[in-house]
UniProtKB/TrEMBL annotation:
Residues 1-23 form the signal peptide. Residues 32-146, 158-309, 422-551 form the Plastocyanin-like domain. CDD domains: CuRO_1_LCC_plant (cd13849), CuRO_2_LCC_plant (cd13875), CuRO_3_LCC_plant (cd13897). One of its GO terms (molecular function) is metal ion binding. It is found in: Secreted, Extracellular space, Apoplast. The keyword Transferase does not apply. This is Laccase. It comes from Solanum stoloniferum. Belongs to the multicopper oxidase family.
């Protein structure tokens, strides 16, 4: 048995993987249950998978089929999204509640059944309903096909590192109050690394993630940002990280002391340890990158990098070094870092960038307002409620699943197939905001024929303040062909697009006060969600959905739903 196979077996044991029927089908069982968990000297009952926080890791190989049975034992409705997995012709397993499925109700279960096609790398799973993903999340590790090497030297060890947020209060109560009052929700009490806040918070020293390493080795760190609302800087003191992967796609390697990772994104990085025992320990820390006018958790999570020693040294007596992170609002660093990301674009891993475009779209993204409900007091601007929108449409989730309504031809009264290609009202998007900040609330879908080549420019707006927005597209990867600051110029900016080796990913930050251009091929039939991965903005309506029609061939059509698809 080779080292990769040993690694796979050990991960499966750690992940509670049930015996497989065949080598290519991997079975998991997710029991959704309440569990008492203590952090920051505060104990609360949280929703978990199998009583674990964070949840169990899923491990498979490219080409494997995954069958994950989710059984709901809690009072909340549940759905699980497999973030970054393309779900080729398996949209029924994608997971966002009221988009591809009705949620799994109390006492019910659902088998998520899908195949990993043409993907390998680090992904993750999380609840996709309300704010339950604050505790319902975990890593997905897709290894290359058997006997297929990495396009870099094999690491000594692989370690998932997942960033999250801890709230002392009930997150469901937090978002419920925010939606009722129309104001901003309370922020988290701590950030976490693998569920642990670390020693920089009060009453948290014992809850510290420690990465124990050997000198002269290379470690593959699988980084995941599962935080609800914050982009994060990350660094390890006195160590360099080599970026080798973004959102499960290999990139041209480059070295950095610090990286930025938005909610929803993943990065694989190589950490080369020092050749000899350094007589020191090192903080590995993360804290937020902030661009908007709202409140945020201005704190720092820390883990500790410890070197193993052949002699019994007292690590407490060793100096502990701390890295220097960029300023909270250092947009220049973020821009420079993201501009260095390039697809590997090798013969084995090509960058298949659409060279010709069938449909050009221009979406404005940002915050606006909605009128306060009758006889209610609202805490948004001038007594209104905060609402987020794309092209001034604040998306309303229906009470039944969009995909089911589409498949059975029952869309009437559920959604409208007329999402606007561009803003209805043009203005100076990054200049003085318009007087009217009200948004239009509706359920509209953008319809695309199968195999449409799409170019989409997403433009930040200054209506209630410029802000970065990490946008996640379900069902597809896309190529980030361009980005810039100010208003997008359709006459000048496309000439600078990178159509050779742009980064390919599934989640991208729309720059604060700027724009980003992406291209993708709509070759996956179904209904696919696109939304901001700042959970508060998604709750306020910064989301929309695409309807990709069936193609002509059998392998270009969405199969019927499974028999156990949950009912609303």
């Amino acid at each position: 048995m080779g080292s990769i196979e040993i690694f796979l077996v050990s991960l499966m044991i750690a992940s509670c993987l049930l015996p497989s029927v065949s080598a290519a089908t991997r079975h998991y069982k997710f029991e959704i249950k309440m569990q008492n968990v203590t952090r920051l000297c505060h104990t609360k009952s949280i929703v978990t998978v199998n009583g674990q926080f964070p949840g169990p890791r899923i491990v498979a190989r490219e080409g494997d089929r995954l069958e994950i049975e989710v059984v709901n034992h809690v009072h909340n409705n549940i759905s699980i999204h497999w973030h970054g997995i393309r779900q080729v012709r398996s949209g029924w397993a994608d997971g966002p509640a009221y988009v591809t499925q009705c949620p799994i109700q109390t006492g019910q279960k659902y088998l998520y059944n899908f195949t990993i096609i043409g993907q390998r790398g680090t992904f993750w799973w999380h609840a996709h309903i309300s704010w339950l993903r604050s505790t319902l999340y975990g890593p997905i590790i897709i290894l290359p096909k058997k006997n297929t090497p990495y396009p870099f030297a094999k690491p000594y060890k692989e370690v998932p590192i997942i960033f999250g947020e801890w709230f002392n209060a009930d997150t469901e109560a937090i978002i419920s109050q925010a939606l009722q009052t129309g104001g901003g929700p309370n922020v988290s009490d701590a950030y976490t690394i693998n569920g642990l806040p670390g020693p920089l918070y009060n009453c948290s020293t014992k809850d510290t993630f420690k990465l124990k390493v050997k000198p002269g080795k290379t470690y593959l760190l699988r980084l995941i940002n599962a935080a609800l609302n914050d982009e994060l800087f990350f660094s390890i003191a006195n160590h360099t990280l080599q970026i080798i992967d973004a959102d499960g796609v290999y990139v041209k390697p480059f070295e950095t002391n610090t990286l930025i990772i938005t909610p929803g994104q993943t990065h694989n990085v190589l950490l080369k340890t020092k050749p000899h025992f350094p007589n020191a320990t090192f903080y590995m820390i993360a804290r937020p990158y902030v661009t908007g006018p709202g409140t945020f958790d201005n704190s720092t999570v820390a883990g500790i990098l410890e070197y193993e020693s052949k002699t019994k040294l007292h690590l407490k007596n060793l100096p502990l070094f701390k890295p220097l992170l960029p300023a909270l609002n250092d947009t220049n660093f973020v821009t420079n870092f993201t501009s260095r990301l390039r697809s590997l674009a090798s013969p084995q891993f090509p960058a298949n960038v659409p060279q010709n475009v069938d449909k050009r779209l221009f979406f404005t993204v940002g915050l606006g307002t909605s009128p306060c409900d009758q006889n209610k007091t609202c805490q948004g601007p001038n007594g209104t409620k905060f609402s987020a929108s794309i092209n001034n449409v604040s998306f309303i989730l229906p009470t039944t699943a969009l995909l089911q309504s589409h498949f059975f031809g029952q869309s009437k009264g559920v959604y409208k197939p007329d999402f606007p290609y561009s803003p209805l009202n043009w203005f100076n998007y990054t200049g003085n905001p318009p007087n009217n900040t009200l948004v239009h609330n509706d359920t509209k879908l953008m319809v695309l024929p199968f195999n449409t080549s799409v170019e989409l420019v997403m433009q930040d707006t200054s209506i209630l303040g410029l802000e970065s927005h990490p946008l996640h597209l379900h069902g597809f990867n896309f190529f980030v062909v361009g980005q810039g600051f100010g208003n997008f110029d359709p006459n000048k900016d496309p000439s600078n697009f990178n159509l050779v080796d742009p980064i390919e990913r599934n989640t991208v930050g729309v720059p604060s006060g700027g724009w980003v251009a992406i291209r993708f091929l709509a070759d996956n039939p179904g209904v696919w969600f696109m939304h901001c991965h700042l959970e508060v903005h998604t709750s306020w309506g910064l989301k929309m959905a695409w309807l990709v029609q069936n193609g002509k061939l059998p392998n270009q059509k969405l199969p019927p739903p499974p028999m156990d698809l949950p009912k609303c």
